[in-house]
Amino acid sequence: MNLTGGIVLFAVIWFMAFLVALQIGSKSQADDGEIVPGTPASAPSDVRIKRKIVAATMIAVVLWSVIASVILSGVIGLHDIDWFNQLGNDPAAPEN
Q1: Per-residue DSSP letters for 12-68?
Q2: Is 78 exposed, middle or buried (0-12, 13-18, 19+ CB in 10 A)?
Q3: Residue 96: what pLDDT?
């Protein structure tokens, strides 16, 4: 994995974690009973976006370090996940 691949992997993991974090603990204005005029009742009442950004970053760092370690160590390679033999023969496999 090169630098660009590491950055892209981190960005994908971060956005996935952020989108999950946005849904956790969110309450709508209808749930709180205080609907701001001009907004729908289903709009969030208190987003706490900074806390969710920090949580997504911490989760992404942990997941990225685990995934990057597995990729860089070679424990799981591309031929290990090639279930339909699209890549041809595995060069590391023993010949019969």
Answers
A1: HHHHHHHHHHHHTT--BHHHHT-PPTTS-TTSBS---HHHHHHHHHHHHHHHHHHHH
A2: exposed
A3: 54
Report CA torsion sign: 49, 55, 57, 63. negative
Torsion of CA 51, 54, 56, 62, to 10 degrees: -140
Mean pLDDT of the chain: 89
Which residues neighbour 75 within 8 Å (Cβ) at sequence distance 6 or greater? none
pLDDT tens readout for residues 27-64: 888 888 888 899 999 888 888 999 999 999 999 999 99
Cross-strand pairs, 44: 28
